[in-house]
Amino acid sequence: MIGSYDTTVARWGSPDAPITISERGRLFLETEVGVPTPTPVVDRSDVKVPASQLSEAARSALADAVGVDALSEADDERLAHAGGFSYLDLVDRRDGDSALPDAIVRPASSDDVAQLLAACVAHDVAVVPFGGGTSVVGGVRPERGPHSAVIAAAFDRMAELVDVDNVNMTATVGPGMTGPTLERLLGARGLTLGHFPQSWERASIGGYVATRSAGQASSGYGRSDDMVEALRVMTPQGEMVLGRAPGSAAGPDLRQLFIGSEGAFGIITEVTLRVRSQPQERRYEGVMFPSYELGLEAFREIAARRTQPDVMRLSDPQETSSTLAMGTDGAVAAVLDGYLKLRRAANGALAIFGWEGTRTQVGARRDETWRVIRAHKGVALGQRVGSSWEHARFSGPYLRDVLMDEGYLVETLETAIRWRDLPALRESVTNALKESLHDDGPGPFVMSHLSHVYETGGSLYITVVARRDAGNSREQWLAAKAAACDAIVASGATITHHHAVGRDHAPWLKDEIGQTGIDLLHVVKTQLDPDGILNPGVLIGT
Amino acid sequence: MIGSYDTTVARWGSPDAPITISERGRLFLETEVGVPTPTPVVDRSDVKVPASQLSEAARSALADAVGVDALSEADDERLAHAGGFSYLDLVDRRDGDSALPDAIVRPASSDDVAQLLAACVAHDVAVVPFGGGTSVVGGVRPERGPHSAVIAAAFDRMAELVDVDNVNMTATVGPGMTGPTLERLLGARGLTLGHFPQSWERASIGGYVATRSAGQASSGYGRSDDMVEALRVMTPQGEMVLGRAPGSAAGPDLRQLFIGSEGAFGIITEVTLRVRSQPQERRYEGVMFPSYELGLEAFREIAARRTQPDVMRLSDPQETSSTLAMGTDGAVAAVLDGYLKLRRAANGALAIFGWEGTRTQVGARRDETWRVIRAHKGVALGQRVGSSWEHARFSGPYLRDVLMDEGYLVETLETAIRWRDLPALRESVTNALKESLHDDGPGPFVMSHLSHVYETGGSLYITVVARRDAGNSREQWLAAKAAACDAIVASGATITHHHAVGRDHAPWLKDEIGQTGIDLLHVVKTQLDPDGILNPGVLIGT
């Protein structure tokens, strides 16, 4: 599925199928952002790998817990588990500056995990659950906190499809199962999970659950938190088995305390997911609205109906023009370009709609949505634009690697808010990023789209491209990120809709749940993980 | 809306419109259960009201907190807040044996609630949040625990519609708002909440949230926990304001810790609910399946589609024959009766389907459901049967009062489970009740229906009618309830789908969430309510 570049850099994609930027794309970026200075990637041979800090006793206890073959302190393994895919994680990798875990362990069962946790407690070793490693918020960055060492726990030995029940419509999987494997195994039984985050090619099911991930078809299939029927979590204080029934009033929903807990409360060892029949028909279409405002109004109205499409995505004019310039599908670019010329409209907002289900359902739901689209002057761009989006929907991270080679800073942020405050939120975050990242050129370029649409609001996904200040990379981005996060919480939005809190958003969580909420999370953490060995620093900080 | 009988008994309905049992109904019960011995209700003048245990200092502090006019120790007020509507609560009221709160307080604001909690802590007074008072699991029974006194907090002064937002599609209300008032106020704006539990006429929004209530149209409109966008909770340790965005990945969903917390963690002072447009069309229909098994199969298949009706309810053959005998709508009884004679089928299973929405949506969704109904040999009984059910859907409690006058024990239990284990669950709970409540007559009579249908399973709602053993009422029912609860947890089902845990289900919660889960709830309780003044005994017991 994914090839392997040098593990130091952890690029997306394969060296056999390199991504390139078109001339048109390059021109667009140079016009909007300015000409960058290419930044070289450190050579593997120049990367210094510090010695593992694992004590002899800890090493021995960990080997006892998971088996001696399932413990590795090899340099390349440690480099491969050095954080996730945030812009700064990538910068660190490229510069050869990543913090490394002292070892990698690979438990094969729930019992292994229990023994692993006991060994970590006994030998004062912090443990970072490392699923697909795709966190963009520092959730898998190896942080030892006050402990003697830090290890990463990988779950490729707990990646089984444990059970599929086509009466209950559930699938039970190990936490290391990945999306592509699960869809392949479910597909053979006529089923689907319907969860397609941009990180789908690498991310694990345990990671989906630990981070409250939302896929691109969440408007129809739901978020990961809607899909979790049951879960098993191993904590240093015992196992939790939660979720007996499809609906329950048996007190607080404790599943919802572990979903989104990012490894701070325990390690997810099994997940039972709701699955669905594979759709008979799938139809994706592009639509152009004459303005973002009209598109937004249409989206709100469509969401208020109970027949909304499975995928709904509205690009702002900036993202629309970027799609036009950067897109790799020439035919699609021609359609969009033709449209914009015809209308002489620089403010067009591109929308993607996707329907999945039985033929009758897709037909009926599409009819109803199109009534709203037409009422808001949306113009059909056809299925080619829709399926072009669908085929490219995992390619964002691939493109980012190439842009970073060119010397660009590229990062995404996301949030959610109720309808009424959405336009002001977009403006405020855009301004914060522009102000913070302004240099002597025309940039930065900030664009966004609305996705993950709910009856009461939606998620805003923002991409920023600037010129990397190579001598000052960390400070440059941290200042911009802080400005954007401040703008988000000041707007009344959530600090994250689907990327999770990780370490990078932890300082803003208090704005969202108050000191009483933070104290409550600390108490839960202390109860389940009194020694604080579980993923130190995530969620509630240190 | 509801008239008032003697407050000692707290009957449903009004003395001006008394409910009676038809001759046919009486004969049915005498055949299935046996002839009962009518049990008289204690005369108000014979009820002994013990003196309030409130100290002078506590009285004065409470009066300072909520205002002297908002504190009452009057006998009738105390009697009116003596527990909820479980069978044993009603038995106690009828016998004049209810435990009473020492006083009733009526806070008018969030600040009042904060001061009220401080006064309770300072003077060692337990406080029971008392919304509509419709708990059937002992959730509002006044239990003082180790404290010097116990008071009930009523919320009729916090029952405002604070805000309606027809862009965000939300309504913000005080916790004392009731369903009928909210629907009237929303209806005037073309909106609806769509939450119709059987207790709708009395229950409060705060109560819905505190108990994770599910309404009869939950298949379409969602459960109360799906409807809560945001909430404010006052705890002795500070206020929690939760729910900024329609979707969030900002850690654990702490709303889900307070939803279903039954007043043990804090007092809900404001709720923001998702609302919907009033449906253009509403269509309710009756269907007869030749057997429960075929009906069940059809329900499962309908639920697996994403076009399921808003209301889906399948009575087992016992409940079907009871509906036929006990129903007050003669025309409907004739339809059902005619059907059963025609088919010579004693095993018919009555189903109710309800669709709400735009004309197009109702049409399309109904077509698709009917395809499944027909494939499972379901026969149309028409809209009259459907609307008869709809009009009688809040009448269960009214009928129970009359049956108790006759000397019957009448109680309901409910649970939920995934599809595959549902038939065995029904059998097991039915047998447990029959075994425990068997006397020298033909009874008890046990019947059930499936409602609140999910893609992965559904809720089973069980009604039992036996002859009350007047000299031994408490022991008779407690033994049967324990046997049923044991059967429920042994079947792998949840101890409650929508009635909540209260005090009555607390012993079984450990089976559901394990000791680690119970410990976690204790830790949360201790953090937020270190003095344990909030509703002692609910949820996690004493």
What does it look like?
The structure is a homodimer of 542-residue chains. Chain A is of the alpha+beta class. The first copy, chain A, is 38% helix and 20% strand. Chain A has 19 helices and 18 strands. In chain A, the strands form 4 sheets. A 7-stranded antiparallel β-sheet of chain A has the order 15-12-14-13-17-18-16, with helices on both faces. The first copy, chain A, has a 5-stranded antiparallel β-sheet with strand order 5-6-10-8-9. In chain A, strands 1-2-4-3 form a 4-stranded mixed β-sheet, covered by helices on one side. In chain A, α17 runs antiparallel to α18. The longest helix of chain A has 23 residues. Chain A is globular, with a radius of gyration of 23 Å. The N terminus of chain A is likely disordered. Chains A and B meet through β9, α10, β11, α14 and β16 of A and β9, α10, β11, α14 and β16 of B.
The major sheet of chain A is characterized as: 7 strands, antiparallel
Give the low-confidence spans of chain A.
1-5
By DSSP, the count of extended strands of chain A is 18
The termini of chain A sit apart by 37 Å
- Widest sheet of chain A: strand order? 15-12-14-13-17-18-16
Structural class of chain A: alpha+beta
Largest interface: A-B, 94 and 94 residues
Strand content of chain A: 15-25%
Q: Percent helix among the residues of chain A?
A: 25-40%
What's the quaternary structure here?
homodimer
Tell me the overall shape of chain A. Answer: globular
Mean pLDDT value of chain A: 93
Top keywords for this entry?
homodimer; 542 residues; alpha+beta; seven-stranded antiparallel beta sheet; five-stranded antiparallel beta sheet; 18 strands; 20% strand; globular
